[in-house]
Amino acid sequence: MRTTVGWQADHAGDALRQVPLERRDLRADDVAVRVDYCGVCHSDLHALGRPGRDTPLVPGHEFTGVVTEVGSGVTRFAAGDAVAVGNIVDSCGECPMCRRGQENFCYAFPTLTYGGTDRHDGTPTLGGYSREYVVHEAFAYPLPAGLDPAAAAPLLCAGITVWEPLRALDVGPGTRVAVAGLGGLGHLAVKFAVALGAETTVLSRTDGKAEDARRLGAHDLVVSTDKRQLAAARDRFDVVVDTIAVPHDLAPYLKLVALDGTLSVVGHLGSVTVSMMDLLVGRKKLGSAGSGGRPATAEMLEFCAEHGVTADVEVLPSKQVNEALERLGRNDVRYRFVLDLADLS
């Protein structure tokens, strides 16, 4: 086994503390990655606070770093290569979804970067809030030159979560897109939609983010609590990407969807109640998406390098991880915290 160091919480509600961690020895198809930057995702916060959790947890599933060692059979990487790793580190590789490059929908369920179970030895996966990660080479991605590694880290979760539905729904020139919620996911959805050539609008509860929306490239902002603005935007958008992370009524957003358009819910993934009449009038569609497969992730990174798209981040030394989580819990970030792991030793 290999020894590294990382940030771990032993039980639900515990603060993270620095501890030594064990990583597996490299298999033939593994690469060892020195983790330099790791994004802080809302799902990290949820996993850490999940009631009843009584096993140690090392969060972190969107990170960038440098390959330090490769297994004997690795062909895609060499020591010194810059790489990125997301929230999936393995899958069955055999089911119809995996064969289509949608490992995120693996019938046997993908192996998650943390809180998962290794498919080969049954050990729990420990995340990227650590100085080293060992991963199958197929689930590491070359980090294109020119992308800031800190600002690129959130692309591997927040970015791919909104990229896949935008691409699946053929967003491009001539498409009218609205993004509900301007947070970690939402600000990247806006950047992607704009870069893809769509007419892009932000939906927000207040006009307080109007300046940010314009800076990100949005063409308009609709205040979702203003009934007159909502009425004026009825049936206006081909695609509405809903990134709101808390339970909420979908009906007002469905009313904004144009004929044969789609409301794609990627923020809150719990139960919802929808009136079929809200779908019937206009032949509207309700969809969702989660994470991304390997081809889409690689495509996204190349697109980001070509168009200069990265996350808006606040970088903190990893010793401030608990502060970052506390601030994230009260939405005190624009728009993604990223931990600098250089202070781990």
Name the descriptors.
345 residues, alpha/beta, Quinone Oxidoreductase, Chain A, domain 1, Rossmann fold, 2 domains, 7-stranded mixed sheet, 6-stranded parallel sheet, 11 helices, 17 strands, 24% helix, 27% strand
Task: Name the structural class.
Answer: alpha/beta
Strand content: 25-35%
**Which architecture of the largest domain does the CATH hierarchy give at level 2?**
Alpha-Beta Complex
Instruction: Tell me the CATH topology of the largest domain.
Output: Quinone Oxidoreductase, Chain A, domain 1
Low-confidence stretches: none
Characterize the main sheet.
Answer: 7 strands, mixed
Residues in helices, as a percent range: 10-25%
Query: Could you give the distance between the termini?
Result: 18 Å
User: Please, what is the CATH homologous superfamily of the largest domain?
Assistant: Medium-chain alcohol dehydrogenases, catalytic domain
Topology:
Layout: E1 2-8, E2 17-23, E3 30-40, H1 42-49, E4 63-70, E5 82-85, E6 88-90, H2 96-99, E7 111-112, E8 132-136, E9 140-142, H3 149-152, H4 158-168, E10 176-180, H5 184-195, E11 199-204, H6 210-215, E12 220-223, H7 227-232, E13 237-242, H8 251-254, E14 257-265, H9 276-280, E15 285-288, H10 294-307, E16 313-317, H11 321-329, E17 336-340
Parallel strand pairs: 10-11, 10-13, 11-12, 13-14, 14-15, 16-17
Antiparallel strand pairs: 1-2, 3-4, 3-8, 3-17, 4-5, 5-9, 6-7
